[in-house]
Amino acid sequence: MTSLPSPLGTALHLAAGGLPVLPLRPGKMPFGNCPACAQNACGGRPNMKTPGPCACPRPCHAWAAATTDPAVVASPAWTAAWWHAEAVAYHPGGAGVTVVDLDHQGAVDWARRTLPPTRTVATTRGEHWIYSGTLRSVNGVRDGVDLKSSMSYARWLGPGTGTLTTLPDTVRALAEKTPPSARPAPRTVSVPAPASGGACPHRSPAYLERGIAMAEQRITDAAGAIHTTVYRTFLAVLSAHGRCGCLTEAHIARLFSVAHARGESDRHCTEAWSNAQSALGM
Questions:
Q1: CB 63 within 8 A of CB 134
Q2: Hey, is 174 helix, strand or coil?
Q3: 160: left (phi over 0), alpha (psi -120 to 50) or beta
Q4: Pairing label, strands 165-166, 127-132
Q5: For residue range 11-67, what is the model confidence (pLDDT) as tens digits?
Q6: Which of 177, 125, 139 is nearest to 256 (CA)?
């Protein structure tokens, strides 16, 4: 009998229990899960939190791909993805839950002081606190804290411990606030004001746009060492454009947004940007 890839076995077990699942490739990014989107051929961006622009019979990117249908989970296209998958992810909103993603020990300490106990799952750097109930997903609601529920996905790291409790008003209130990561850029991040509407004086506006797009793609495509990649990418952007007055807060927000999609917190992005500025004497 041909063996199944172990992530597929886990995914089928979770789907049978009502958890919408999808495969994750290295770097915690989803696949394009239908044949037309294999290797991202349709032009979608499966690492982002919105489905790709492809005209598939059903959504096959990111959180929209998550399903409890075993026929889809074990379909030929998905099986090919499972063989290369690094982990299993799930759609919290589709399961009727919200994941409070605590990225470091300080965030965990805050949760223990502030939030009611619930089911808890250990992560590499912190913990996932899982509550019954859904809300909009928001990154960076406070230092090291992201909310993952609707239109988002979370890595499956095991059933955890503790009893699932109802989503508290404290967390709902966080989702209604404007988090630091939703701003164009943190106030600690500064660049010279554009001298002429963002036009790049030493080349052309197209040169700047191409540079930002290449920086976004570099972070998006990084297979590992995300912290280092983000820092080096910020360093390259500032080296090319940080002194000529062409960078705007909108450009910085684009870079931060892509880094957030790869799991970087607002604190990590701010530190990487500040460190790059210091390295260049800015």
A1: no
A2: helix
A3: left
A4: parallel
A5: 999 999 999 998 888 777 777 666 666 655 555 544 444 444 455 555 566 677 788
A6: 139
Q: How far is CA 258 from CA 51, 153, 168, 172, 181, in A?
A: 15, 16, 29, 25, 11
The encoded tokens of residue 193 equal: 């004001």
Tell me, what amino acid is at 199?
A
Say whether 256 sits in a helix, a strand or coil. helix
Identity of residue 226: I
Residue count of the chain, please give it: 282
The model's pLDDT over 211-250, given as tens digits with 9 standing for 90+, comes to 888 888 888 888 767 778 888 888 888 887 777 767 777 7
CA 221/CA 46 separation, integer angstroms: 11
DSSP state of 115: S
Cα–Cα dist 255/72, whole Å: 34
Residue 124: Cβ-neighbour burial (10 angstroms; 0-12, 13-18, 19+): exposed
User: pTM of the entire structure?
Assistant: 0.60
Q: Are 144 and 213 in contact (CB under 8 A)?
A: no
